[in-house]
Structure formats: C-alpha cells, structure tokens
Amino acid sequence: MKYVDEFRDGKLAQVLAGAIAAAARPEHSYSFMEFCGGHTHAISRYGVADLLPPNVRMVHGPGCPVCVLPIGRIDMAIALALEQGVTLCTYGDTLRVPASKGLSLLKAKAQGGDIRMVYSTADALRIAQENPAKHVVFLAIDFETTTPPTAVAIKQARALGLENFSVLCCHVLTPAAISNILESPEVRKLGTVPLDGFIGPAHVSTVIGSRPYEFFAAEYRKPVVIAGFEPLDVMQAVLMLVRQVNEGRAEVENEFTRAVTRDGNLKAQELVAEVFELRRAFEWRGLGLVPYSALKIRSEYASYDTEFRYALDYQSVADNRACECGAILRGVKRPQDCKLFGTVCTPDNPIGSCMVSSEGACAAHYSYGRFRVQGGSSQ
Amino acid sequence: MSVRPDYVRPLDIKNGRVDLSHGSGGRAMAQLIEELFARHFDNEFLRQGNDGATLPAPAGGRLVMACDGHVVSPLFFPGGDIGCLSVHGTINDVAVMGAKPLWLAASFILAEGFPLADLDRIVASMAQAAREAGVPIVTGDTKVVEQGKADGVFISTTGVGVVPDGVRLSGERARPGDVILLSGTLGDHGMAIMALRENLGFSSAIVSDTAALHGLIEAMLATGADLRVLRDPTRGGLATTLNEIARQSGAGMMLDEAAIPVNSEVAAACEFLGLDPLYVANEGKLVAVVAAADAERVLAAMRAHPLGERAARIGSVVEDAHHFVQMTTGFGGRRIVDWLTGEQLPRIC
Ligand code: SF4
C-alpha cells in the first residue's frame, strides 16, 4: 500500500518533528485540540505525541461519534429491539456503548434482541429487502461524513418502495460542537482550558468544506488547520498551527488539500439538505443540550423516520457520576484524571462512552498510551 | 425382475442432502460414514470399525493432546475451507508444543438440509490435508441437528502427539533479552474471510494462509537452539498471542512495526475495514521466542522452509513490571499493543 505508507514515513516524521521543535518558542506553551476521533486515534496509534516537544500539547476533542451519543439514545434503540421486535442495524462500536440498567446493544442482543452489526447503510437496506416481515431500523450515528450515505439509503428505500425500513437519526454536526466548546466557561472566562487552535476534521471537511470554520477563526481568534487522518498530516498541521500562533494569525488553513476544498462537496450537501433538517436541540454526552447541533429527517420522509413511526419520546439519562467523559470531551480533563480509568473502566468493561471506540480519548489512551502514565508526561 | 436382498441404494452425493436419519445411529448413518467419511479418510485405525481407535503407545517422550472447534463462515474461502482448516488448526496446536503430531479425531455437527456434495468436498479436503501432513484421522463422530440449529457444518478435531524428552516449550519461559521471530506475513487468513464476507473488490488477491506447521517446527527444533515458546497466532492475532506470553512470563515485549511483514493487499483491506493486522487471525504462521544467541540460526532455518520464507525478527522480550507489549511505530513513536477488546471478527475459524 504505497499510497498510505507515504503518509506514515518515519524519516519524514523526524524532519517534521525537528521543524516543530525549532518553530515552537521555548517560553511559550501551545495547546491544540484535535477535534476528531480519527485524529485522536492516529495520534495514539502512531505515537505522534512522542515526536512533539514538551511545550506542544494535544487536547482530545469531542469528535468521536460513539462518545457523544447520550445514554438516552442507546436506550431508545435497545427498547426498539427488545420491546418492539425490530431488527436493529448499526456500526460495530455502537454495540458496546454502555446504556441504562447495565445494558448495551451487545447485551441486548444476547437477551434475544435482533441486533446486527453492519459496515454500511447498504447492508441495512439489504437486510430490510431480505426480511420483508421484519421492520429494520438503521441506527445512524456520526458527524457529517456519513450523512450523505444515510440520505442515499432513505431515498433508495423510497425508490424501492421499502416499507419496512427506517432510520433512527442521531447524526450530529461539527461546527455546532466547536462553538459549544469555544463558548464554554472553561475556555471563555476561566481559562482553565488553554486552547490555541484546532486541528480540523478530515472526512467531515471533505463534505462541508473549510468555509464553516472561517467563523471560528475570525470570531474567536483561533487558528484552524484542516488535516488528513494520516500521522504525517497531523504533524504538518501542528507545525502550521505553531507558525500561526507565533505570527499572531488566526486563519483557516488547509493541510488536506488532496481532499478538501473551501466549499466541500456541494452535491452531497444538497442531498443531505433534501432529506434532513436541523434539530432545534440535541443532547450530546459531555456537552449536554446543544442548540441546532444535529439533524432530523424531514417530514416529507417521515415514514422513514423511526422516531416518527414509533412515536418515540427522548428521555435524557444521567451518566455514571464518577465518569469524567463529559469533562474529557470538552478538553477540561484527561483520561487519567478519572478515578475509574484502567481499574473499574477498561475497554472490555467500559463505564463511559469514551472507553468504547478506539477514537475515544479514554480507550485510545488505555490501548495505546498507558505506559506513559507512570512518567506523567501524557496527555 | 430379481431384487438383490442386500442391495442398498448408494448415497446420492451429487444432489442429496443431510437429513435427520443421518444422525440417528441407524442404517442411514452407517451408510453416510461408509460411503463418505470412511471412503476419504481410509486408514488402518479407522478400518478397525470400533467405537474408538486402538493406537500403539509411543516409546518415549510425553503425550500432548489438543482440540479445536471450527465454525468458520463462509465454509469455502480462497486458499482453503473448513475441512483443511480443521486439520491444520489442531495439528498446529499440537506442533507448537514441540510435539510430533500422530493422530487426529474429528467430530461433525451437521445441519439438516446441508448438501452432501458440499460435505463431500469438505471431507475430501480434510483427508487430503491429513494425508499431506502424515497425520491420519483415526476416529470420529457425526451428529445431525434440525434446520436452523446450526449453520451448515461445525467440525471439532482433537489431536495427539509426542514431545521428545528435552524439548520444553512454554509461555512462562520467555525472559528479557530473548528475541521474537515471526514466520511470515500477518492477517492473511482473517482478511481472506473478511474480504469475501464484505465483498471487497480486491478480495481475490487475498488467500488464507492455512497450513500445517509441524514441518517448519521440526526444522526449527533440529537446529538444537534454545526455543522457549512457540505459538500460532490464530484468533486475536499476533497482539493477543504476545500478550498471553507476556502475562505468562511476567516480562514485557518491544516490537518494531517496520519489521513486521504484511502483504500489501491485506494491509489495504485492513485499512478499508478499519482493522489492525496485528489483531487479525492467521492459520499458518507461528511466533517464536528464542534465546538471543540462537536467533539467527533459527531464523535461517525458518527461511529455508517454504512456510517460513518471509520469517522476520520482529522484536525482543524486555523487563517490564506491567508486562506491556509495546511497539516502536514505523512512524517513530511508541504505543502499546493491547489485548483485543470484544469480538473483532466473529466466526473467522
Ligand atoms: S475512564 Fe471510563 S469512566 Fe472514566 S471518564 Fe473515561 S470512560 Fe468515563
């Protein structure tokens, strides 16, 4: 896989590491938030932190799709499978997210729920076609990246006349979450979370483009560098952020020009706008209710909207009190600050959602970086 | 018209299907065993025709016994099928103990309705694998369950072998300073199955590595080197196997990512499905922990064997109170290579 290896070249990484160390002013400390779980994973998986100077710190952001899914949404899906007898399809990691009563979708499956792991919305559609007697629900999670395929699935279901398929839509939006973090008291007033800039999402930005971030750069004076998910992309983005901070600039820069344009994918945006509209508010794990931060299915497509078909009411459920996921998702705390980390809470027995997917801050730190805990040099 | 009183209509292997009578213990079952299983497996022990096989007691050494259940889906895949897999899997479990595998037993759970033609193909493949390995299947059993209670066929095999005196391979023997060797590329079996299941376009290039490893192991033992541990990294992949050894031995491991061989198609498929080759199943690879002084000698012996051509030195055992398995990434950073969490790939073998 030549294409991929080019972006993981150890020698190039050393060159970039040298450039970052030279650019970072010793009297200054730099904190950058990587918004996306994809970046969190790359940083941990390739040991990027080992290549950064001590005064450049990465703060994990909330961009991990299963991490921000609140308990109430998983409870909804479990109830559909166990009480309404639907066939519930979703992506792998979602199955292990802890829900109420010690359940998860995986445990509900063991209790007899017809819950299936799929790799794409097309799989869910196929299951609906093959099982006309069952109602098939696709639990759609994730940021903008996967909204176009979900829109396509809904339109295809209509074109095929499929009546036994609907979508439990939990798609959330990146810009709203970034605003929420920038508006939080820890960043705005208390200054307990120093944030000097953002690494902007890779795949999300291929869809929405770089334009939506211009507001953050201008309004909050925070530089944003959009970067690909390869470790060299991350290093390059860090270097660009350090330079912006040094020069007092706050701009949107695009490291990921091989895939991201200013306007993004207009076709995909149209498709999404045709099927979805903004929700007035949506509960995120960690961030709470965030206004206009998620999508719901338009009334024209109501028969494909699980919430409409089953007249579901959202019930908010509080997280485990000891779990610090909320603070971690906002960059206020680090995984090892949680009392449960690595003892009660591990990837095999996650208490909070950050310990579930390898894009989650706790799971990434546990699975790839916990040897650093003793040295205390971790982030 | 004369009717031969002892005539039995032969099994319709081409179009017939397994039905409940094939597991009943009656004549239909006897016929299935005779015309299908015994025809392929034929050997002197099976021919004894008793409930169990009577085998000669080995003259020296210690006995090793291992068993392995096989539930892979789909049953046929590039590079093999459930039949040869069930032979290789158990032979390897016996062989990595340093033993010479001698005999196998096989038990089949068949689903009502399973095509006899498929069963015939599977049994023929098992027989061929056993013949090539020189390890006969000396006894077996067949059960049939109703439609929907099993998926086609499940096969469990048991193997018996003998370890020569003086050979002692065990996870707890790994100690700091030892070298870790890997016999070839990672992830081929698991990704062959996944590429098929997920209909990946480039799947044709990925072939399962299923193979019996006792020949390779014999060559390694013949060097007279101090082999501490041998394991075949099947489910859970290399990462899981090394974590097991680390836990047993109380030592840590440090791997070098750049030294770990992975076929480019496998790497591409892993990338596509978001999997890590370190956690993907292998069915014809082994990892060895060897005293440092002997490492080059063993590596040369591995490379001289067809199943070890791409063998590599991938890391070493280190002192670590937390017995972490760590890795220097190709990128230049460091990370933990942790236990597998949850079930990454159900029914891979
Ligand atoms: S370690 Fe577990 S309980 Fe603690 S914050 Fe992370 S996910 Fe929550």
Structural class of chain A: alpha/beta
What percent of residues of chain A adopt helix (DSSP H or I)? 25-40%
Task: Write down the overall geometry of chain A.
Answer: globular
Instruction: Tell me the β content of chain B.
Output: 15-25%
Secondary-structure element order of chain B, N to C: HHEEEHEHEEEHHEHEHEHEEE
Question: What's this, in brief?
Answer:
With 379 residues, chain A is of the alpha/beta class. Chain A has 16 helices and 13 strands. In chain A, helix 2 runs parallel beside helix 12 (231-246), helix 3 (37-45) runs parallel beside helix 16 (361-369) and helix 7 crosses helix 13.
Could you please describe the fold and organization of this structure?
The complex is a heterodimer of chains A (379) and B (349). Helix content of chain A is 37%, strand content 15%. Chain A is an alpha/beta fold. Chain A folds into three domains: 5-64 and 178-254, HypD, alpha/beta domain 1 (Rossmann fold, 3-Layer(aba) Sandwich); 71-171 and 279-309, HypD, alpha/beta domain 2 (Rossmann fold, 3-Layer(aba) Sandwich); 325-367, no CATH class. In chain A, the strands form four sheets. Chain A has a five-stranded parallel beta sheet with strand order 2-1-7-8-9, sandwiched between helices. In chain A, helix 5 links the parallel strand 3 (87-90) and strand 4 (115-117). With 349 residues, chain B is α+β, with helices and mostly antiparallel strands. Chain B folds into two domains: 20-163, 60s Ribosomal Protein L30, Chain: A (2-Layer Sandwich), CATH 3.30.1330; 179-336, PurM-like C-terminal domain (Phosphoribosyl-aminoimidazole Synthetase, Chain A, domain 2). In chain B, 29% of the residues lie in helices and 22% in strands. Chain B contains nine helices and 13 strands. In chain B, the strands form three sheets. A seven-stranded mixed beta sheet of chain B has the order 8-10-7-11-9-12-13. Chain B has a four-stranded mixed beta sheet with strand order 1-6-4-5. Chain B has a two-stranded antiparallel sheet with strand order 2-3. In chain B, strand 12 (325-328) and strand 13 (334-336) form a beta hairpin. The termini of chain B are far apart. The mean pLDDT of chain B is 93. The chains are: A alpha/beta (379), B alpha+beta (349). Chains A and B meet through helix 1, helix 2 and helix 16 of A and helix 8 and strand 13 of B. Bound molecules: iron/sulfur cluster. Iron/sulfur cluster is lined by residues 323-325, 328, 335, 338, 340-341, 345, 351-352, 354-355, 362 of chain A.
